[in-house]
Amino acid sequence: MRADRLLSIMLILQAHGKTTTSALAEKLEVSRRTILRDIDALSVAGVPVYAEAEHGGGVYLDENYRVSLTGLNEAEVRALFVSKQAGPLADVGLGRAAEDTLLKLFAALPSLHRREVERIQQRILLDPAAWWPQGKPLPYLETLQTAVFEDHRVQVRYERGDGQVVERILEPYSLVAKAGLWYVIARRDDELRTYRVSRFIAVEALHERFERDAAFDLAQYWQTQVNTFIANLPSFAFTLRLDATKLRLLRLYAEGGYAVRDTSPDGAVLIVDVQLTSLEEACMLVLGLGTDAEIIEPDELRKAVLLQAHRMVTHLSTEQILRHLYNE
Predict the structure, then answer these.
(1) Alpha-carbon distance 127 to 117, whole Å?
(2) Is residue 327 assigned to a domain?
(3) Alpha-carbon 152 to chain mean position
(4) What is the total count of domains within the chain?
(5) Contact (Cβ atoms closer than 8 angstroms) between residue 25 and residue 35
(6) Please, how many CA atoms are within 13 Å of residue 314, restricted to the half-sphere of its CB?
(7) How far is CA 201 from its chain centroid?
(8) Which domain holds residue 241?
(9) Where are the alpha helices (DSSP H) in the chain?
């Protein structure tokens, strides 16, 4: 709708200052000619929008002009107020600020939108916390946050994924919360790296400041990291014949990593393709499913399960096995 586009133009100009008509056209997915007509319409309506035609010019709003929140449409109101949860913001001391911000926005809304806010909050809730919270607090998150905001180097002791503890001097650029876990993006030896905050054993803020790379873009960097991680994620695929009553367990341990290929006429047996990250993980799943699952392929998994089952049995003495079987 044109009204939404006009409001979007004003908000973009208010947030980013002078902007070219070509950039506006690309962002709003319309032609430059349409943007020019919209700017004329805003000007006629009394909005203090100005254009500079010379080289390096663009479109801009009077710096004292502010767009009223009454221009929000229903979908935008829903997006703002769909969740009251501060989530990771509480970890960095901004939980109360997030709640106060929503309260102020709510007070600025027209009464019609307020009723919509109350309605949507009873229908949709976004909870960013993991089901199983981290087992230990993050004592160094505040120190890292301060270093990130003040561009201070930090000296750390860090436990790597292989268990080795190393000491490093880092230049912390950013903090990122992903699925309930906090990460710090830091530069070391002129290269950006990602560290899990829960693996820091010690963090000491240094008085030395560092110069950030002006070209660094956090959102772009993180999306590249995510894409690289997914592309390099190890994978092990296998196929099971599964008792349908065990689909619940499969869903619990391999959610998003399986697909039902076929079902028996009575629905009692399923042929399921599963994809996990390793042979070891697949072996653990199959052993957990027990006799309710039969490996169709590959033979590599079948041999691994048989070997593991043999080791489990031979690990127990005959006396222990009988005692467990007969509860004696």
Answers:
(1) 17
(2) no
(3) 26
(4) 4
(5) yes
(6) 6
(7) 25
(8) 236-315
(9) 2-16, 21-28, 32-44, 74-81, 95-108, 111-120, 141-150, 218-231, 247-253, 279-289, 299-315, 318-326
pTM of the model: 0.63
Quick one: 53 and 87 in the same domain?
A: no
Angle between helix 74-81 and 111-120 (nearest 10) = 50
Residue 258 resides in a domain: yes
Query: With contact defined as beta carbons under 8 Å apart, do 72 and 3 qualify?
Result: no
Residue 154 sits in a domain of what CATH number?
A: 2.30.30
pLDDT in tens, the chain (328 residues): 566 788 788 878 877 788 888 888 888 888 888 888 888 888 888 888 888 766 556 888 887 776 665 666 677 777 777 766 566 777 777 677 777 777 777 776 767 677 777 777 777 777 766 666 655 668 899 999 999 999 999 999 999 888 899 999 999 999 998 877 899 999 999 999 999 999 999 999 999 999 999 999 999 999 999 999 888 888 899 999 999 998 888 888 888 889 999 999 998 999 999 999 899 999 999 998 988 999 999 999 999 999 988 887 777 666 666 666 666 5
